[in-house]
Design a protein that fits this description.
The chain is of the alpha/beta class. It has six domains: 5-82, Arc Repressor Mutant, subunit A; 91-165, Orthogonal Bundle (Arc Repressor Mutant, subunit A); 169-282, Orthogonal Bundle (PTS-regulatory domain, PRD); 292-393, PTS-regulatory domain, PRD (Orthogonal Bundle), CATH 1.10.1790; 399-483, Response regulator (Rossmann fold), CATH 3.40.50; 489-636, Mannitol-specific EII, Chain A (3-Layer(aba) Sandwich). It has helices spanning 5-15, 22-29, 33-47, 69-82, 91-104, 111-117, 122-138, 157-168, 182-187, 193-206, 213-231, 249-263, 269-282, 292-310, 318-336, 346-352, 354-367, 374-391, 409-422, 435-440, 472-478, 489-496, 510-523, 531-541, 596-611, 613-621, 625-636; strands at 52-57, 61-66, 142-146, 150-154, 399-404, 427-433, 449-452, 463-465, 502-505, 550-551, 564-575, 582-590. Helix 14 crosses helix 17 (354-367). The longest helix has 19 residues, at 213-231.
């Protein structure tokens, strides 16, 4: 993208971190401070036309400032399109190539040869291997070195396959459902992916197995990987302690026979188990390993707890109960098979639906004996969020629309509920279709337009393509923007924030900041002495930073008669989690139990801060409480 690979890498590193210390760059590229300064000057010369600039902050490092979001987006789009023609355009491209080469290698692989292939030095290659080692450790994989030969990956075949799927392929792409990417075709160059898709769809349809577009694509990818690995004599070992349910045997026999005939291979018992486990994870089949009576009770307990602690009464929402039962059944069936289903929408869910995510995280931790991971919490929070939206949505009419969504019923429910919340009395969702169903639809009589989270086109009916999070620009596409609140925001600000709960510091550790903010709340008689330990307990569950600037620490359970936010703004970033991510803006959230409308206003504010880089920069400049309130008012009102 830029004039040299090193400039590409430097920009890639700086643009993905709050601050990048100078010594980090000099060590990684084995160059001097002066050379780094020259490289930054060269980058800034090229970045001018995209309205952004790399600046240096003393004692912190380099950081990227974006002056015009739309101009910067052109740079991102250009970067994405150039990936199609430049083989090793970015740091991620090179890391992915090394990963794929090592995981598919039959013998020891020379690092010097790999370095020459991706046009980097030996020192840079060694730095890449540190990152790759960290990735391997997540999958219980390791590599061994042999003098004059190179390195080789050692590990379980199931773990190798999962590492390939999770790290080489991009499930977050909006086109993931629609077609096969160049990277997918390259990884499975010996497999006809379109033929594989036809086989999978044929058998799922014949046996009336329900699976959304996203999960169908997952099955195709996992089965293609299985066939590719079998052709290289890499097999999943048979587990004698695991039995495939009898009611799924007929489907398995049909799929395996088709695979063996089409690809001239043998599907072993271990691979049959592999096929079944992925069908169980990605499709709706009855799993006898889940106790329905116990699960029903746990769902009842969960909804009671949500009502007690957050005052959202979802206890009589039969749609929610059914969706939760099906989703928890799938989660627990996958766990018994030691399968982990990645959530491609996780970051978007956490950024755009923090309240449902938080409710799900804290309440499931108290109901289920086994802690849910963030991917699972993200999926479940979509159901919870959709139910909350339904609580506040009225009846609707007027425009008849079709909703197209390919990521499953949870995503569809959330998008539908959000649409109804934003466009109350404006739209009527007549049908909810997957991508495959939409392609077969030929009748659009009395349909005004289609709303789709998948980039589709139609000559028969107008289509509005939106993100599943329904951001402001998406709302504007569908209709005139509606007012989100019915009261003056300035009064809301005065209600939530307080001069005595505003702190500006040069630097501090995470522990110091939490203690300072808790003490400030306690001094104002807003919380009791137990508040601090509850905040630490919540921190141990999952990270509370929303992005590289903003964190929202809070207790496990609403525990006050007042809803107040204690604010800390730091001159220097503070490390906020074990992954080394930093923040500078900290809002300690204290919610009055049952104050559901207030909490919705607050989370709307948080979402705006997360998604608005200009607002983040302005907040960092606020020197006192009045300046802080002015900035918030200017951007939100």
């Amino acid at each position: 993208m830029f004039s040299s690979i090193r400039l590409d890498e430097i920009f890639d590193i700086i643009s993905h971190q709050s601050y990048t210390p100078v010594n980090e760059l000099t060590k990684r590229f084995q160059i001097t401070d002066r050379t780094i300064r020259n490289d930054i000057a060269a980058l800034n010369y090229e970045l001018k036309k995209y309205s952004c600039e790399i600046l240096l902050k003393r004692k912190s490092g380099y950081y990227l400032v974006i002056y015009d979001d739309s101009a910067y987006q052109k740079l991102i789009n250009q970067n994405l399109s150039s990936h199609k023609t430049v083989q090793f355009n970015s740091l991620n491209d090179r890391i992915n190539y090394i990963l794929k080469s090592l995981l598919n290698a039959e013998e020891y692989l020379s690092l010097d040869l790999l370095a020459d292939t991706i046009f980097v030095s030996r020192n840079t290659m060694q730095n890449y291997m540190k990152s790759i080692k960290e990735i391997f450790e997540k999958y219980n994989l390791m590599y061994v070195s042999k003098p004059n030969a190179g390195i080789k990956v050692i590990g379980n075949e199931r773990d190798i396959r999962q590492c390939l799927v999770d790290n080489i392929l991009s499930k977050e792409s909006p086109n993931y459902i629609i077609d096969f990417s160049d990277r997918e075709k390259a990884l499975f160059k010996d497999i006809d992916l379109y033929e594989m898709r036809d086989i999978v769809n044929k058998h799922l349809n014949n046996y009336k197995i329900k699976a959304n577009d996203y999960d169908r694509k997952n099955l195709i990818i996992h089965f293609a990987l299985m066939l590719s690995r079998i052709k290289s004599d890499h097999y999943i070992p048979y587990d004698g302690n695991f039995l495939i349910p009898k009611d799924i045997q007929e489907l398995l026999n049909a799929i395996c026979t088709d695979f063996e005939t089409t690809y001239n291979i043998e599907i072993t018992k271990g691979e049959r188990q592999y096929i079944y486990l992925h069908i169980a994870t990605n499709a709706s089949i009855h799993d006898q390993s889940v106790n329905p009576i116990l699960l029903d009770k746990q769902i009842t307990d969960l909804l009671n707890l949500i009502y007690q602690e957050y005052n959202f009464d979802l206890r009589n929402d039969e749609v929610l109960k059914k969706d939760l039962f099906n989703h928890f059944s799938s989660i627990f069936a996958s766990r018994m098979a030691s399968l982990h289903k990645k959530n491609p929408l996780l970051n978007s869910i956490k950024s755009n639906f923090p309240l449902p995510f938080e409710i799900t995280l804290t309440t499931t931790a108290k109901v289920f004996s086994e802690k849910l991971n963030e991917d699972e919490i993200g999926f479940v929070s979509l159901h919870i969020g959709a139910a909350i939206e339904r609580c506040f949505s009225g009846q609707y009419n007027k425009k008849d629309v079709i909703l197209v969504c390919g990521s499953g019923i949870a995503t569809t429910r959330m998008v539908e509920a959000r649409l109804n919340a934003f466009f109350n009395n404006k739209i009527n969702i007549k049908e909810r279709l997957s991508y495959e169903q939409f392609k077969k639809q030929s009748e659009f009589e009395n349909i005004d337009f289609v709303i789709s989270t998948i980039p589709i086109q139609s000559d028969l009916v107008p289509v509005e393509v939106v993100s599943f999070a329904l951001k402001n620009e998406d709302i504007e596409k569908i209709s005139r923007r509606l007012s989100a609140t019915d009261q003056c925001f300035d009064s809301v600000l005065r209600q939530f924030f307080d001069k005595k709960l505003f702190i500006r510091k040069n630097k501090a550790s995470k522990e110091e900041i939490i203690k300072i903010l808790c003490s400030a709340l306690e001094e104002q008689n807003i919380v009791g002495p137990e508040y601090y330990s509850s905040v630490l307990q919540r921190e141990s569950l999952a990270k509370t930073n929303m992005n590289s600037f903003f964190a929202i620490p809070h207790p496990m359970t609403p525990c006050s008669e007042k809803t107040k936010v204690a604010v800390a703004i730091l001159d220097e970033p503070v490390v906020w989690n074990d992954e080394g991510e930093t923040v500078q803006i900290i809002f300690m959230l204290n919610i009055r139990s049952g104050q559901q409308r207030d909490i919705e206003y607050l989370y709307d504010l948080f979402i705006e801060i997360v998604n608005n880089s200009k607002l983040q920069q302005e907040i960092l400049k606020s020197n006192d409480f009045s300046h802080f309130i002015q900035i918030i008012s200017k951007f939100i009102s």
